[in-house]
UniProtKB/TrEMBL annotation:
GO terms for cellular component: cytosol. Residues 9-90 form the Shikimate dehydrogenase substrate binding N-terminal domain. One of its GO terms (biological process) is aromatic amino acid family biosynthetic process. This is Shikimate dehydrogenase. InterPro entries: Aminoacid_DH-like_N_sf (IPR046346), NAD(P)-bd_dom_sf (IPR036291), Shikimate_DH-bd_N (IPR013708), Shikimate_DH_fam (IPR022893). It comes from Candidatus Chryseobacterium massiliense. Its EC number is 1.1.1.25. Transmembrane segments: none annotated. GO terms for molecular function: NADP binding; shikimate 3-dehydrogenase (NADP+) activity. Keywords: Amino-acid biosynthesis, Aromatic amino acid biosynthesis, Oxidoreductase. Pathway: Metabolic intermediate biosynthesis; chorismate biosynthesis; chorismate from D-erythrose 4-phosphate and phosphoenolpyruvate: step 4/7. It comes from the Bacteria.
Length: 245
């Protein structure tokens, strides 16, 4: 029998991670005594070199702020990861490091569960790795979208209520409002929201961000990032284990 098989998560300031508990529960449920899941908190992306040299490493998840930076350290990308330009799952097989994007899979499952026909144009808040996966999925489903970030033409300072009114699907992809900074909220014209709006906030901790609370007060339907997170984790598990006969 193989010795300990290692999985993990790389990111920065990630002690609050969902993934460790999720996968440790899974190991227990499947009675996999030889698996472990570690948190690799990196100050700089180049520290990933040390992790690659760990024996028995099957792969790892990637979170903020390294979903784009990790690409330079990999040998190959899946088609989706290549198109998106961001990686959140890495498989290591015979020394070869392949990057995948399971955020797209998780977001697509969430979107299709809640989307109504009138959610036919979107505003994406943020332009990091998660936002790129969201844009990829929206494009795939023929939903036009506008990205709003600090540096875009339409930004947090000039986004207005009328513009929000005309886009019934809003996806919040920034880390603003994540635990422990639960009182933080993006500058957003909530008065443009209505009961016809669907708000998906990719944050899962807390369950209800300030953004979600403010949106639901305007009658909008709100969804957090928990289901997406579960789904992308399941997809990652499939990728890590599919290879082993």
């Amino acid at each position: 029998m193989d010795s300990n098989k290692k999985l993990g998560l790389i990111g920065k300031n990630i002690s609050y991670s969902f993934s460790k508990k999720y996968f440790e529960d899974k190991f227990q449920k499947l009675m996999l005594k030889d698996y472990s899941y570690n948190i690799f908190d990196l100050n700089e992306i180049d520290e990933v070199e040390d992790i690659f040299s760990a024996p028995e490493l099957l792969g790892f998840n990637v979170t903020i702020p390294y979903k784009e930076k990790i690409i330079d350290y990999l040998d190959e990308l899946s088609d989706e990861a290549k198109n998106i330009g961001a990686v959140n799952c890495v498989l290591i097989e015979n020394g070869k490091k392949t990057g995948y994007n399971t955020d797209a899979f998780g977001f697509e499952k969430t979107l299709l569960l809640h989307k109504k026909p009138h959610h036919d144009s979107a505003i994406i808040l943020g332009n990091g790795g998660a936002a790129k996966a969201v844009k990829y999925v929206l494009n795939k489903h023929g939903i036009p979208s506008v990205t709003v970030s600090r540096s875009t033409e339409i930004n947090y300072d000039n986004l207005n209520a009328a513009f929000v009114q005309n886009h019934k699907l809003i996806i919040q992809c920034t880390p603003v409002g994540t635990f422990p900074n639960v009182e933080d909220c993006l500058n957003f014209p909530f008065e443009g929201l209505s009961k016809d709006h669907l708000i998906i906030d990719l944050i899962y901790n807390p369950n209800y961000t300030k953004f979600i609370i403010n949106a639901s007060e305007k009658g909008a339907k709100t969804v957090n990032g928990y289901y997406m997170l579960e789904q992308q984790a399941e997809k990652a598990w499939e990728i890590w284990n599919f290879q082993k006969k």
